[in-house]
Design a protein that fits this description.
Blueprint: E1 8-11, H1 15-20, E2 41-45, H2 50-62, E3 67-70, H3 75-82, H4 86-91, H5 99-119, H6 123-137, E4 140-151, E5 154-163, E6 174-176, H7 180-188, E7 192-194, H8 206-211, E8 218-225, E9 228-238, H9 246-277, H10 287-304, E10 308-316, H11 318-325, H12 327-344, E11 350-355, E12 358-364, H13 368-384, E13 393-401, H14 408-424, E14 430-434, E15 437-438
Parallel strand pairs: 1-2, 2-3, 13-14
Antiparallel strand pairs: 4-5, 4-9, 5-6, 7-8, 8-9, 10-12, 10-13, 11-12, 14-15
Helix pairs in contact: 5-6, 5-9, 6-9, 11-12, 12-13
Length: 451
């Protein structure tokens, strides 16, 4: 077998595989930075250790090149890969596929997509994996997956996953359904090629302006799962030829349906998983998940030698809301207080409902002083909230690792007792635990730590 001007950059440390390769192929060894020029596919050998393999995959994605893993650790495996009718095509830009080989390639990729998708549970993982595999068949500079969502009764397309230069900033960005090439595809349920977007009135130029990226050609296809359109995939700037072709469109449309089903299944799993960790009413994390999160954060804090704090919060006067206005208003107030606490906490904090009108906040890499500042902000904001004129306030207890204990149960108990100490001494305040008791001070504003 002779491979002319291979376009596949090969990363391998297995001697048997390297000896079996044509001299024109490029190999990689630890400490040697590869040149990406002239290549449009990357083969990554499993002989690389996990750290090196992950580094190569990361750099490959940064270079916007499709990639695949192969078994290169034994001579017989190398021979088998080289005899694969698919690999010569991938390695040689001048190779022509017979109909039989084309069918084999499509079937192989389809099987890999379905197998991979079924083994992944998170939507972003599914999207990254299957789109990388599709990009092996139809090489492109960048791609994105947009998912149809509804915000305030308005249909929007949200960038759920992207790959390529200057595209990561688009993740979670939303555009109105119906706008741009993606919007047209979703509304008409038809795939589309646009090889001169600058002359197409449907092209949404704001995206290029935002990312400073020049779109030269587009292939877009609707994601249809179980008869319902859930989004669209877009592939930008075809590699190896001037624009996308009808064959490209045909190839992509073969795979979008299983891709759509895999993505929807991942979202359904995510939704089901959320039900097991969320509080039904407030949508904050529930007590069980909070406990699991604290286990993880405590181990992390010990390993990194960082502090960790926990707040226990109980609402003062909440029973009066139920008694005066009924349980419907009580539930509404809990939802609103949950949002107040979430907004007052920091992005890195973990907020949950511990039960009834009690809440918990886990503060990673935060000592007593930082926890006190967050607690005071929460206390002030809760105090300002008066449902239907009824006054509420918060009693908050704080315990920290390593100051007060190195055990989860002890830290929880100390924070809980500190919180109840506040309730018994005027409410609407903050107490900080000590190993042998609790800091005492003036109430009802707050309690300060002792020097």
């Amino acid at each position: 077998m002779i491979l002319r001007a291979p376009k596949c950059l090969i990363f391998s440390e297995a001697n048997a595989w390297l000896e079996a390769l044509p001299r024109a192929a490029t190999s990689w060894m630890a400490g040697k930075e590869p040149s990406w020029a002239g290549f449009n596919l990357v083969a990554i050998g499993q002989s690389l250790n996990a750290k090196a393999r992950n580094a190569v995959i990361r750099k490959t994605k940064e270079a916007s090149l499709p990639w695949f893993l192969f078994e290169d650790r034994h001579q017989e495996n190398a021979d088998q890969v080289l005899s694969d009718p698919i690999l010569p095509f991938l390695l040689s830009p001048n190779a022509q596929l017979s109909d039989e080989t084309q069918d084999t390639l499509q079937l192989k990729t389809l099987v890999e997509i379905i197998t991979t998708a079924n083994s992944l549970l998170q939507p972003r993982q599914v999207m990254d994996s299957v789109m990388d595999q599709i990009a092996m068949l139809v090489p492109c500079e960048a791609w994105s997956v947009l998912i149809l969502t509804e915000i305030n009764d308005t249909k929007m397309l949200e960038f759920a996953a992207t790959s390529g230069p200057k595209t990561e900033s688009l993740v979670k960005h939303r555009i109105p359904s119906g706008e741009g090439i993606a919007g047209w595809v979703v509304e008409h349920n038809k795939p589309l090629i646009v090889n001169q977007p600058e002359n197409d009135t449907r092209f949404f130029r704001d995206m290029d302006a935002q990312t400073q990226y020049k779109t030269e050609n587009i292939l877009a296809a609707p994601l249809i799962s179980r008869g319902r359109t859930i989004g669209v995939i877009e592939m930008l700037n075809r590699r190896g030829q001037k624009g996308f072709s009808g064959i490209d469109l045909e190839l992509v449309t073969i795979f979008v349906n299983p891709v759509a089903v895999a993505i929807e299944n991942a979202y359904l799993f995510q939704k089901t998983e959320l039900l097991t960790i969320q509080d039904d009413l407030t949508k904050l994390y529930n007590a069980r998940h909070l406990s699991n999160c604290f286990d993880f954060e405590l181990q992390r804090a010990k390993r990194l030698k960082q502090p960790l704090s926990v707040l226990f919060l109980d609402l003062d006067g909440f029973k009066g809301v139920n008694d005066r206005f009924g349980h419907l208003q009580g539930s509404r107030s809990l939802i609103e207080v949950a949002e107040i606490i979430k907004q007052a906490a920091r992005e890195t904090d973990i907020v949950g409902r511990y039960g009834g009108d009690e809440f918990m906040v886990i503060l990673p890499a935060t000592g007593t002083g930082g926890a006190f500042a967050v607690a005071e902000r929460i206390r002030e904001n809760v105090e300002k909230y008066q449902p239907r004129g009824h006054k509420l306030s918060a009693s908050i207890g704080i315990a920290s690792f390593p100051d007060h204990s190195a055990e989860k149960e002890r830290l929880f108990a100390l924070a809980d007792k500190a919180m109840y100490w506040v309730k018994e001494h005027g409410k609407n305040g903050i107490a900080v635990a000590r190993g042998d008791g609790f800091v005492k001070g003036e109430m009802p504003i707050h309690l300060k730590t002792e020097d």
